[in-house]
Amino acid sequence: MLTEERRKKIVEWLDQYSIVKSQDLVTQLNASESTIRRDLQELEDEGLLVRIHGGAKRSQHLEQEAAMAEKTFKNIHQKQAIARLAVEYLTEGDVIYLDAGSTTLEMVPLLKNKILTVVTNSVGIAARLVEQQVPTIVIGGRIKLTTDAVIGTQAIEQLTNYRFNKAFIGMNGVHPTHGFTTPDTEEASLKKLAMQQAEDAYVLVDHTKFGQTSFVKVAPLDSATILTDKCPLVLYDKVAEMTTIKEVTV
């Protein structure tokens, strides 16, 4: 059995059973213990599982979301590359939505001198857009201090009145079964509405977000094109069956 086929099987069994034993993998996959150890290490490095004594368990990120200041410095080169890819989809005169997030934030320096209008629910992104002299509309409402996002019923009501050529959305989890997910219910509602209000929706995520599931489902995978640095090979076929994936070399 080829390496990728073997690792796909491991991920599929984890989806079904949540925990697998190394000895069972050795038997079922007809592989050596050292081979299974390498497989589990590689899959853990890709964020698809967590190794435990005697096996592995599914990696599920249902904890509280990290603060914006913390997320900004993680996987920065990947996020910058994804932002460059996202900007390639812009057309002169577009009205676009920029979701609050560390990857969408990296798009801001690339928008200078472009003819477009930006709507955002991030006060931080809005401030930087103004510095770039980009025409900007900020959604009003309550500011979530940890993520810099404007949320709440007022934000939802305002967003309902807008239409976009493109929406660029950040996400915490991308999973073939559970779809796009995020930790906060109010942020999830705003992300979902922005995607619905756009002619074309793009979800910007680095490779660590694949196979992860957060608390609230935002939308199924076919709701947006995924822009990423890399989709792990063990998940690529499943995700690609549901939506378009665009990868960029970092």
Describe the overall structure:
There is one protein chain. It is built from ten helices and 15 strands. The protein is α/β, with parallel strands linked by helices. Strands 6-5-4-9-12-14-15 form a seven-stranded parallel β-sheet, with helices on both faces. The model has no long low-confidence stretch (mean pLDDT 90).
> Could you give a short account of the major beta sheet?
7 strands, parallel
Morphology call: elongated
Order of strands, main sheet, comes to: 6-5-4-9-12-14-15
Q: How many distinct beta strands?
A: 15
Query: Low-confidence spans: pLDDT under 50, at least 5 residues?
Result: none
How far apart lie the N and C ends? 30 Å
N-to-C order of helices and strands: HEHHEEHHEHEHEEEHEEEHEEEHE
Radius of gyration: 19 Å
**Structural class, from helix and strand content?**
alpha/beta
Q: How large a portion of the residues is in β-strands, by DSSP E?
A: 15-25%
The average pLDDT is 90
- Helices, by number, come to 10
Measured as a percent range, the helix fraction is: 25-40%
Please write out the topology.
Layout: H1 3-17, E1 19-21, H2 22-29, H3 33-45, E2 49-52, E3 55-58, H4 68-71, H5 76-87, E4 95-98, H6 102-105, E5 117-120, H7 123-131, E6 136-138, E7 142-144, E8 149-151, H8 153-160, E9 164-170, E10 173-175, E11 179-182, H9 185-196, E12 198-204, E13 216-219, E14 225-228, H10 233-242, E15 245-247
Helix pairs in contact: 2-3, 8-9
